[in-house]
Each structure stands twice: as C-alpha cells, then as structure tokens.
C-alpha cells in the first residue's frame, strides 16, 4: 500500500547507512 511505503521512507531518512540494503529488500517485495 502507499501508506506502507510512506512509513518506510520515513524510517529510511534516518537510516542512510543501510538505505541501499533496505531498498533492495523493499524492492524484492515489489
């Protein structure tokens, strides 16, 4: 859902160091 993605992006802002890794995980679900 869009809301879930927005919440994810909010967390990603404070997680720059692991951002690429986390995006890869999120991409796997998309």
Largest sheet: none
Molecular shape = flat
Q: Please, how many helices?
A: 2
Tally of separate domains:
1
The whole-number mean of residue pLDDT values reads 74
Low-confidence stretches: none
The number of E-state strands comes to: 0
Order of helices and strands: HH
Strand content: under 5%
Q: How many whole angstroms does the radius of gyration measure?
A: 9 Å
How is this fold's topology laid out?
Elements: H1 2-13, H2 19-29
Would you mind describing this structure in some detail?
The structure is a single chain. It is built from two helices and no strands. The longest helix is centred in the first third of the chain and has 12 residues, at 2-13. With 30 residues, it is mainly α. It is flat and about 25 Å long. The relative contact order is 0.16. It has one domain (1-30).
Task: Describe what is shown at a glance.
The chain has 30 residues and is mainly alpha-helical. It has two helices and no strands.
């Amino acid at each position: 859902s869009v809301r879930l993605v927005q919440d994810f992006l909010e967390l990603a802002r404070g997680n720059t160091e692991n951002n690429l890794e986390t995006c890869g995980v999120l991409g796997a679900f998309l």
